[in-house]
Design a protein that fits this description.
The protein has 462 residues and is mainly α. Helix content is 66%, strand content 0%.
Length: 462
């Protein structure tokens, strides 16, 4: 996309809140991404530490996660393999487009994080809405992570104590609420309290391996199914034409890597939009194969009866699947603190801007406030996870927010960036890009509205 000669709107610094408070440049930065000082001279001079190939794997790592467990159920809701794949392919075009738009706007505004780009390009109101959306999204994702821990621990414990799965837990120490709580208090809470999360980058490698292992197990179990597996009904078409849209939250939740993509782009040795386009295309194709393999094979194995968490459909005593459950627990244990850090950092920035206090002036109270924020966040997510046992209900809510990060905010940024260009005549390409931005905003608003309404009136009231 060609850059105009005008400057991007940066009036967020004129707001009455403190502009430098919260150090937003550090928010939502991947712990595995090395940063360089923000300046125009750093662009393209090789000061970044990440090669194009390295950026591909970082983006894949950001996209892949525990959300893949819900893809077989998404294929079932969409009405079969053909509908599920077609929906993914259509959405993938705009998912890649959103990633390229964010890089273009990051380069034009010289900002290094997602919310900074929205602030600089779109102004104060979209900037605040973006930060609030990030906080709500990370909060909901943390709830989903705790539910996943409970799902996997239920199966592992059932295999260890050799209890019939239908009978439920008869011992207090195998009760789901107890196991989730003890795991959260002993492992997640201590990892969530530190001010920085750089130490998490070593554990993330195991998380990536675990995600690939889960996909491999599901594919192998479909190719060589267990002998006791009963043939099931495989839907070949959606029950209604609107049923296809029920799969959108899962796809948006799975492919949402846009928030962390901006720091990755700026960490590259040569942060160029054209190179970034090739990087994200390769990364999304890899993620597509992983999600499609998991979704198709899990759906064809269990059909319309597949659980929202596909691993729950397998028996407890299956050793390879039990190892997959252990990997998923490890993935979630390392991901929760990172997501919590992102949400906490956004809330901290909003608070400091509202009070007009800079980071340097508020060092004394920072630790006390961080402990209060962390404990409140942790207890609320834990409480909700204990009483919302279905991960599908949580994803149906936060999937709509993921659509905002993928479609709405990038679309708004593209529109505002093109409107900020000073040109004597508007070329056809200019109008095409503005129209594309309008379409992305419209599509994202539709997905958000449809999925949120469906979550409220169908899932949460069921």
């Amino acid at each position: 996309m060609a850059q105009g000669t005008g400057s991007i709107n940066s009036d967020y610094k004129d707001w009455e809140w403190s502009a430098d408070a919260g150090e937003r440049a550090r928010l939502l930065q991947s712990p595995s991404v090395e940063t360089v000082p923000k300046s125009g001279e750093s662009q393209g001079n090789g000061l970044g530490a990440t090669s194009a190939l390295g950026a591909v794997f970082i983006v894949v790592n950001a996209a892949l996660g525990a959300g893949l467990l819900n893809f077989p159920a998404a294929f079932s809701m969409a009405g079969g393999v053909a509908a599920g794949i077609a929906l993914q392919m259509c959405m993938l075009i705009f998912i890649i487009g959103g990633l390229v738009i964010l890089a273009y706007c990051s380069q034009a505004s010289n900002e290094r994080t997602y919310q900074e780009v929205v602030w600089a390009v779109c102004g104060k109101v979209p900037g605040v809405l973006c930060e609030v959306a990030i906080a709500v999204y990370t909060f909901g994702t943390c709830i989903a992570f705790l539910i996943i821990i409970g799902d996997q621990e239920d199966k592992i414990i059932a295999a260890l104590v050799m209890e019939p799965e239908e009978a439920g837990s008869s011992r207090w120490y195998t009760d789901r609420k107890f196991t989730i709580s003890i795991t959260a208090f002993l492992l997640i809470l201590p990892l969530s309290i530190p001010k920085e999360i750089g130490f998490q980058k070593y554990a993330s490698s195991l998380s990536v391996i675990g995600t690939w292992y889960v996909t491999a197990v599901i594919i192998i179990k479909y190719i060589w199914p267990d002998k006791e597996l009963v043939p099931v009904e495989i839907p070949t078409s959606p029950s209604t034409w609107t049923a296809v849209f029920n799969a959108m939250p899962t796809i948006c939740f799975g492919f949402q890597c846009h928030v962390s993509s901006v720091p990755v782009f700026n960490s590259m040795k040569q942060p160029e939009v054209k190179t970034w386009g090739a990087v994200v295309t390769a990364a999304m194709v890899i993620a597509l194969f992983v999600y499609t393999g998991t979704g198709v094979c899990g759906f064809l194995t269990f059909g319309a009866g597949v659980e929202q968490d596909v691993l729950l459909s397998y028996p407890s005593n299956d050793i390879p699947v039990a190892l997959a459950r252990a990997f998923i627990i490890l993935c979630v244990l390392t991901s929760y603190p990172i997501l919590h850090f992102c949400g906490r950092a956004v809330l901290e920035g909003l608070w400091l801007r509202y009070t007009g206090v800079t980071v340097e002036e508020d060092v004394v109270r920072e630790r006390r406030r961080r402990l209060l924020q962390t404990i409140s966040w942790f207890l609320l997510t834990l409480l909700l996870a204990l009483f919302i046992p279905d991960i599908g209900k949580v994803i149906s809510v936060i999937g709509g927010l993921a659509a905002c990060f993928i479609f709405v905010f990038p679309g708004l940024c593209l529109i505002q960036a093109k409107l900020s260009e000073i040109q004597e005549t508007r070329a056809i390409s200019w109008w095409a890009q503005v129209s594309y931005g309008v379409f992305m905003v419209t599509l994202g608003a539709f997905i958000f509205g449809q999925t949120t309404a469906n979550a409220i009136f169908v899932d949460l009231t069921a």
